[in-house]
């Protein structure tokens, strides 16, 4: 029986975060696109795009390594990034999805919009706007906006 050859390593990055940030993801590149970034505070970010699943995932050591964040159309839904981190993420998203079809890109943009609406709705619930008239008006406007996105009438 032959043993598998060990792969030569291109890049090894030590974890620069404290133990409270959790165990780093230990990712292996090869199923798509992988990018690494370190901001001016030394916080480490890793982005992977899976071309088979058409999905992007971000790990941010400062948020905790154990909580990967879904990325849609080059943006996260549930976290706030610095301007520098956002610029990097938009760039690596563009590179990772350069061969994707327009349909895959449009679906990702729609998933981003839906994710932001879901987050908005959960914030309304937390603030106690469960079923008031104003809440219903907001939800109606949100549904109109989503419909416009699906029809391609709203610019990204």
How would you describe this structure to a colleague?
The chain has helices spanning 83-96, 102-126, 133-150, and strands spanning 32-38, 44-50, 55-60, 69-72, 75-76. With 156 residues, it is an alpha+beta fold. The protein folds into two domains: 1-100, no CATH class; 102-156. A five-stranded antiparallel beta sheet has the order 1-2-3-4-5. It is globular, with a radius of gyration of 19 Å. The model has no long low-confidence stretch (mean pLDDT 83).
Write a short abstract of this structure.
It is built from three helices and five strands; from the N terminus they run βββββααα. With 156 residues, the chain is α+β, with helices and mostly antiparallel strands.
Looking at this protein, list some descriptive labels:
156 residues, alpha+beta, 2 domains, five-stranded antiparallel beta sheet, 3 helices, globular
Which helices and strands, and how do they pair?
Elements: E1 32-38, E2 44-50, E3 55-60, E4 69-72, E5 75-76, H1 83-96, H2 102-126, H3 133-150
Q: Count the E strands.
A: 5
Low-confidence stretches: none
Instruction: Report the helical percentage.
Output: 25-40%
Total number of helices: 3
Could you state the order of secondary-structure elements as H and E?
EEEEEHHH
Q: How many domains comprise the coordinates?
A: 2
**Strands across the major sheet, in which order?**
1-2-3-4-5
β-strand amount = 15-25%
Give the biggest sheet.
5 strands, antiparallel
Question: What is the CA-CA span between the terminal residues?
Answer: 54 Å
Query: What is the typical, i.e. mean, pLDDT?
Result: 83
**General shape:** globular
Estimated structural class: alpha+beta
Please give the radius of gyration in angstroms: 19 Å
């Amino acid at each position: 029986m032959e043993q598998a050859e060990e792969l030569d390593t291109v890049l090894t990055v030590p974890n620069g975060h404290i133990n409270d940030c959790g165990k780093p993801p230990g990712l292996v590149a090869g199923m798509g696109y992988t990018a690494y970034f370190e901001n001016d505070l030394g916080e480490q970010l890793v982005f992977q795009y899976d071309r088979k699943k058409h999905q992007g995932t971000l790990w941010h050591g400062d948020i905790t390594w154990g909580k990967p964040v879904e990325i849609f159309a080059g943006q996260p839904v549930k976290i706030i990034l610095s301007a520098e981190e956002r610029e990097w993420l938009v760039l690596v998203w563009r590179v990772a999805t350069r061969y994707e079809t327009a349909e895959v890109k449009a679906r990702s943009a729609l998933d981003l919009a839906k994710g932001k609406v879901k987050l908005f709705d959960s914030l309304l619930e937390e603030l106690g706007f469960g079923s008031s008239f104003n809440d219903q008006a907001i939800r109606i406007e949100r549904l109109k906006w989503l419909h416009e996105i699906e029809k391609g009438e709203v610019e990204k």
